[in-house]
Amino acid sequence: MSKIFCILSKPNDKLIEITPLGFSWLIFFFGPIWAVINNLWRVFLIWLLLTFSIIFISKTFSSSLIYVFLFISSTLWGFFGRDLLIQKLISKNYNPIKLVNASNEKNALLTFLSEKEK
User: Fold this and answer.
1) What is the distance between the alpha carbons of residues 64 and 77, in angstroms, rounded to a whole number?
2) CA-CA distance, 70 to 65, in Å (whole number)?
3) What is the distance between the alpha carbons of residues 53 and 28, in angstroms, rounded to a whole number?
4) Nearest-CA neighbor of 45 among 34, 32, 54, 57?
5) CA separation for the pair 30, 7 (Å, rounded)
6) Cα torsion through 25, 31, 33, 35, rounded to 10
7) Which pLDDT tens digits describe the chain residue by residue (118 residues)?
8) How far is Cα 25 from Cα 15, in angstroms, rounded to an integer?
9) What are the distances in angstroms from CA 19 to CA 5, 25, 40, 117?
């Protein structure tokens, strides 16, 4: 199965980051934990603040509101989690170089490096 990977690199440095694009089931189920692991603190804290707010509101109005919020937030994590990681890398002076179609990160790197040598 083929995926699209974004190749990012720092100028004047040989560091290369390879990040897959698109929906992720792992991030769908473990979005906040994934955000902490990838040091996306600002997004995690916003999510945490919203979660506590919804819990407080759901105690007043409807207890099912928290389940709706968790499903919607999980869906948003799944669709936009990888994009948030790429935005973090761009803010750390990484430049997106190329999009590569490959089956995994190793093959994406090999494809990128073989095209770079030509």
Assistant:
1) 20
2) 9
3) 21
4) 32
5) 24
6) 120
7) 789 999 999 988 888 999 999 999 999 999 999 999 999 999 999 999 999 999 998 888 877 888 999 999 999 999 999 999 999 999 999 999 999 999 999 999 999 999 876 6
8) 28
9) 5, 15, 15, 21
| Cα separations in angstroms, 77 against 72, 84, 94, 106, 113 | 9, 9, 22, 25, 31
Buried b (16+ CB within 10 A) or exposed e, 74-112: beebbebbbebbbebbeeeebeeeeebebeeeeebbebb
CB neighbourhood size of 20 (10 A):
17
pTM of the model: 0.87
CA distances from 2 to 65, 105, 106 (A): 37, 11, 13
